[in-house]
């Protein structure tokens, strides 16, 4: 915490001495943040933004894992869908804002579509790599023991691919937050991104900085929550890679001595 606190102290000292209109001191930004984002605009702007972001992120996770598992299993589907996926992947989501407004209108559906489309690719590609990276010897042994396909997927393939899926989901989370702001810059009447842009256009600089600080805090909080979930779900993987506590080795049971056996048989 020393470096962030030192940077904030240096900025506040510089802002107070420089007197620049575009860089207000921390006290002014903090008072505006408390006034706007602790109570006043939570229900009208913060919660709608979070609902759009979480909906698009959940859609990206669901589609990415399902489609990635299919492409990782089947080389035929991967070859057939590769041109379409590469074309869609090359399209930057902000460039599709006019198309999404034309197709979905100016409501939340267009914004959720943009967030889901941008956050889809890290999850999809990591799922494909995770499924294809499963040990083939383990798969062949499961087939030789006639383990059903559903059990092979839930008990063998999915756990083996989970570390890569989580890596893609963490990258997708940052992209979802960025696209939440981008999607609210055009055709929106509420949201954090809309208010930041409105404050910038109206030269309400403290409110603009307060919205920017809020976005940074949201990114920090969601990343911390994601790491907590990852630590709980992938504790076995983190322990083997040295990023978590080592698993407790099972205690070996020793055979009883003749004296202990005789004592146990006594009434």
UniProtKB/TrEMBL annotation:
List membrane-spanning regions.
54-74, 86-106, 112-131, 165-188, 208-229
Location comes to: Cell membrane
Matches recorded under InterPro entries:
MetI-like, MetI-like_sf
Cite the record's Low complexity compositional bias ranges: 241-261
- Keywords on record: Cell membrane, Membrane, Transmembrane, Transmembrane helix, Transport
Region annotation (Disordered) maps to 241-267
Q: Which GO terms describe its biological process?
A: transmembrane transport
Annotated ABC transmembrane type-1 domain residues: 46-226
- Write down the membrane topology: Multi-pass membrane protein
**Pfam families referenced in this protein's UniProt entry, alphabetically:** BPD_transp_1
GO cellular component terms, semicolon-separated: plasma membrane
Q: Does the keyword Glycosyltransferase apply?
A: no
PROSITE patterns annotated for this entry?
ABC_TM1
Q: Which family does it belong to?
A: Belongs to the binding-protein-dependent transport system permease family.
Write the protein's name.
ABC transporter permease
| Organism field | Pseudonocardia petroleophila
Phylogenetic placement of the source organism = Bacteria, Bacillati, Actinomycetota, Actinomycetes, Pseudonocardiales
């Amino acid at each position: 915490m020393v470096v962030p606190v030192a940077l904030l102290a240096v900025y506040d000292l510089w802002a107070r001495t420089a007197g620049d209109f575009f860089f207000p001191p921390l006290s002014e930004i903090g008072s505006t943040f408390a006034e706007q984002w602790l109570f006043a605009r939570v229900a009208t702007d913060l919660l709608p933004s979070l609902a759009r972001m979480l909906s698009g992120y959940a859609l990206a996770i669901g589609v990415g894992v399902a489609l990635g598992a299919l492409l990782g299993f089947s080389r035929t589907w991967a070859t057939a869908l590769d041109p379409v996926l590469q074309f869609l992947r090359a399209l930057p989501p902000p460039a599709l804002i006019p198309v999404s407004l034309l197709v979905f209108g100016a409501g939340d559906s267009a914004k959720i579509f943009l967030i889901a489309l941008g956050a889809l690719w890290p999850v999809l590609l990591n799922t494909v790599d995770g499924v294809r990276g499963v040990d083939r010897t383990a798969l062949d042994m499961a087939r030789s023991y006639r383990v059903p396909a559903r059990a092979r997927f839930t008990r063998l393939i999915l756990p083996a691919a989970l570390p890569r899926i989580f890596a893609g989901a963490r990258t997708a989370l940052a992209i979802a937050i960025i696209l939440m702001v981008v999607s609210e810059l055009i055709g929106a009447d509420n949201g954090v991104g809309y208010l930041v842009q409105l404050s910038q256009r109206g030269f309400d600089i403290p409110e603009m900085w307060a919205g920017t600080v809020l976005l940074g805090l949201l990114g920090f909080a969601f990343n911390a929550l994601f790491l907590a979930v990852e630590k709980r779900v992938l504790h076995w993987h983190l322990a083997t890679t040295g990023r978590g506590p080592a698993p407790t080795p099972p205690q070996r049971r020793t055979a009883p001595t003749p004296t202990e056996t005789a004592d146990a048989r006594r009434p």
